[in-house]
Amino acid sequence: MDCLILGIESSCDETAAAVVKNGREVLSNVINTQIDLHKIYGGVVPEIASRKHIESIDAVIDEALEKAGVTLSDIDAIAVTYGPGLVGALLVGVSAAKALSYATGKPLVPVHHIKGHIMANFVAHPELEPPFVCLVASGGHSHIVAVEAYDKLKVLGRTRDDAAGEAFDKIARVLGLGYPGGPLIDKLAKEGNPEAVKFPRVRMDGDSLDYSFSGVKTAVINYLHKAEQKGEEIVKADIAASFQDAVTDVLCEHTIEAAKRCGLKTVALAGGVASNSALREKMENMTKKEGMQLYFPPPVLCTDNAVMIACAGYYGYLKQDFADLRLNATPSLNLES
Ligand code: KG4
Ligand code: ZN
């Protein structure tokens, strides 16, 4: 029998709801983004995010049900992101999901946001099965994860400081490009020379698969200050391309190394940064060279959405991994917990 999951996502600046059939078939995908509201501040303002989520959550859920051509009584379970993320923002989705679960008697499935990002690959590629290695790079997180089974994730490496998306956003800000910076750097970099400036690629000592982006960020800022002091002309497209090249080198090399160490020939990308065209291209080339298979979701399933939450919720539902009404928003939820 078919299983319909209603997914709800509100961890940052997107209020989203979706209905997914049997974990892999999208019946609806509604995303109400707040990007324009936060743009003028150069980043997400948590208090504004929470208020906007409250204003739109009911309408977003109604629209997701309507577009899927179903009602709440057709839904088998309600899946919701309960962490990590902004606490006030998470609370809105969690409260809405709990209210719906209480009113309908349908089970409530708690979902880890990063796990959701990884799961977007199952929706985009129905043939994909664990095990594989996944690079999850977003505005708040950058992890290299071994997906050993649907419910077994192991973190192999992570950033020691900034998330990849955060670094993109910060460099876009110093270049005066706007917010969110990732897509703007991606676009501008296409007109620039990635070899114009050799920015640092930071590796940790020893065997660690961890990495760091604070060094490259500082190097770009120092480069811009020095050029300004000397009155030199700055070619923004070259800086964007060189910065992007450094960040994507680090992400690709570490991910490939992780796959090799695990003896895995399948690699996936997830999270907002996974829509970066240079990252995709570099990863395509590197995996091909290693005889590995690469998967990534379309851009709309890379950035925050509720389809990925419904997909992760489906696998939680199969394992009867249900929460009761004490479920709370957990801003710094551990991926392996
Ligand atoms: O996954 P996501 O929507 O939200 C979080 O969970 O954080 O990721 C948003 C991040 C932002 O930092 C944004 O700048 C970055 O993903 N991003 C990109 C691109 N599109 C979005 N970074 C690089 N290139 C892109 N094309
Ligand atoms: Zn996200």
The quaternary state of the protein chains shown equals single chain
Content-based structural category: alpha/beta
What is bound: which ligands?
A: 5'-O-[(R)-(carboxyoxy)(hydroxy)phosphoryl]adenosine, zinc ion
Name the overall outline. Answer: globular
Mean pLDDT value: 96
Count the DSSP helices: 11
| Main pleated-sheet profile | 5 strands, mixed
Please sum up the structure shown.
This protein has 337 residues and is an alpha/beta fold.
What does this structure look like?
This protein has eleven helices and ten strands. The protein is an alpha/beta fold and 337 residues long. The chain is globular. 5'-O-[(R)-(carboxyoxy)(hydroxy)phosphoryl]adenosine binds next to α5 and α6. Zinc ion (ZN) binds next to α4.
Could you give the topology of this structure?
Layout: E1 4-9, E2 14-21, E3 25-33, H1 35-39, H2 46-68, E4 77-83, H3 87-104, E5 108-112, H4 113-124, E6 132-137, E7 142-149, E8 152-158, H5 164-174, H6 181-189, H7 214-229, H8 236-262, E9 266-270, H9 277-289, E10 293-295, H10 299-302, H11 307-318
Parallel strand pairs: 1-4, 4-5, 6-9, 9-10
Antiparallel strand pairs: 1-2, 2-3, 6-7, 7-8
Helix pairs in contact: 2-3, 4-11, 5-6, 5-7, 5-8, 6-8, 8-9
Bound molecules: 5'-O-[(R)-(carboxyoxy)(hydroxy)phosphoryl]adenosine (KG4) and zinc ion.
Keywords:
single chain; 337 residues; alpha/beta; five-stranded mixed beta sheet; 45% helix; 19% strand; binds 5'-O-[(R)-(carboxyoxy)(hydroxy)phosphoryl]adenosine; binds zinc ion
